Amino acid sequence: MSIGFQPGPAIVIHCKQIPKRGDPPQMWNRKKDDEPMPRPTLAPPTAVALAREGIPMNTLPPPRLAEPEAARAASVGKSVVIKGQLYSREDLYIDGEVEGTVDMPESRLTVGPNGKVVAGIKAREIVVVGTIHGNVEVGDKIEIRKDAKLVGDIRTVRLVIEDGAYFKGSIDIQRNEPKAIPAPRPAAPAPPPAQPVVQAAAVGGDKR
Amino acid sequence: MRDCQGLEILDLGEFNQANRDYIASLGHRLFHEDLVAGIDQIFGSGDPATTQRHPELAHEFLSQTMQFEPGQFDAILVWDTLHYTARPLLDAVTARLLSLLRSRGHMLALFHADPRAEQVQSYSFRITGPDSLELHSRGVRRPAQLFTNRGIEKLFDRFASIKFYLTRDSLREVLVRK
User: What is the mean pLDDT of chain A?
Assistant: First the structure.
């Protein structure tokens, strides 16, 4: 219920109607008038205005909150089914079904709780929360979380397994051998100094 | 296991990080298959003496389980899984284990000491060092059968040798060689 007084600045009073016993149930949507009025917002003071008033302020940009892993990665939703070859150069979050091959040697793959991947996979890093059926080749690390299921052979440098994970297959741990630093070559013999033009001219037998 | 590298070892217990780390640290390759989880998946959680006699299910179990090359493994860690397999499936599983071992390969199995218990503690076995093994409970299960020493000898009568060791927690450790 709203009461308005005219003329002059409008004063709006919002009252909540209390239903009485025996009143018919409310059947209609709220009237637009009953909706709360938007509060007037003040524009934030500008740095110049604050400085003028002598109020201390921070001029650094506000700290950015860390985004969730899945939000940073490209994602395959849980109702999506992909069949074929999947190649990615960015991180990928699969919560749907993928069948075929997954090739992302420079990136991280996360198989979400609803994710089911029936594929050979090559990735830099894999986190399994859902299910993988297929051989897996990992450049860095694979994590198999609790209740995750992986059936296939794993080749990896590092492996983390939580209790309650199901795994069937073989594990081949690749040694992370340090890259061979090429031995310094012996100093190459200095190229013979360029012969002076005068001599060249002399060899040429160009006599004057 | 500590004297040589590059052995191929099959672990039939619950998958865990401790065994993976220990075996990989010795330079061996680990293969894994959770035999009890496979039994539950195919036969369900009913009375094993009844469900495992179903010939079609038994055939399905054998066609999906331990599908490796004959003579592939230097060692097989069977742990306590043979308790949960009923005859005649048990004999087929033991024959499969024998075929998967290389000549002079070893197999480690553990058996409960009380052959009359109706429920037994099931464990996840974790190797934490050359002389130490941690037992983590996987709950209580109804065994398909329990074994006397004579029963274990008969079970492995096609192997070249059997050694018995009495361990803690009412378990007998049995090391057999092909």
Answer: 70
Cβ count within 10 A of residue A74: 14
> Are the CB atoms for B115 and B146 separated by under 8 Å?
yes
Residue found by looking up tokens 């110049």 in the block = A48
* pLDDT tens string B73-110: 999 999 999 989 988 889 999 999 999 999 999 999 99
Is the CB of B32 less than 8 angstroms away from the CB of A170? yes
**Residue A168 touches chain B, beta carbons under 8 Å:** yes
CB B132 within 8 A of CB B142: no
pTM for this structure? 0.68
ipTM over 0.85: no
Return the DSSP state at A79: T
Taking contacts as CB-CB distances below 8 angstroms, the residues of chain B near A167 are 15, 32, 34
B10-20 mean pLDDT: 90
Distance CA B17, CA B8 (A): 17
Q: Does residue B137 belong to the interface with chain A, where contact is any CB pair within 8 Å?
A: no
- Where do the H-state alpha helices sit in A44-122? 47-53, 69-72
Bridge partners of A120? A101
Closest CA–CA distance from residue A25 to any residue of chain B (Å)? 53
Q: Is A106 at the interface with chain B, CB within 8 A?
A: no
**Shortest CA gap A79–chain B (Å):** 26
Tokens 């195919």: give the residue: B42
**Residue A163 sits at the chain B interface (C-beta within 8 Å):** yes
How far apart, in whole angstroms, are the C-alpha atoms of residue A123 and residue A107? 6
pLDDT of B27 strictly over 70: yes
Contact criterion met (CB < 8 Å) for A168 and B30: no
Task: State yes or no: pLDDT of A3 exceeds 70.
Answer: no
Token pair 């400085």 is found at: A51
Residue bearing the bigger pLDDT, B29 or B47 = B29
| A151 Cβ under 8 Å from any chain B Cβ | no
How buried is residue B104: exposed, middle or buried, by Cβ count under 10 Å (0-12/13-18/19+)? exposed
Contacts of A163 in chain B (CB under 8 A): 16, 124, 136
Which residue did the predictor score with more confidence, B118 or A197? B118
Residue B79: C-alpha distances to residues A2, B51, B146 (Å):
79, 22, 14
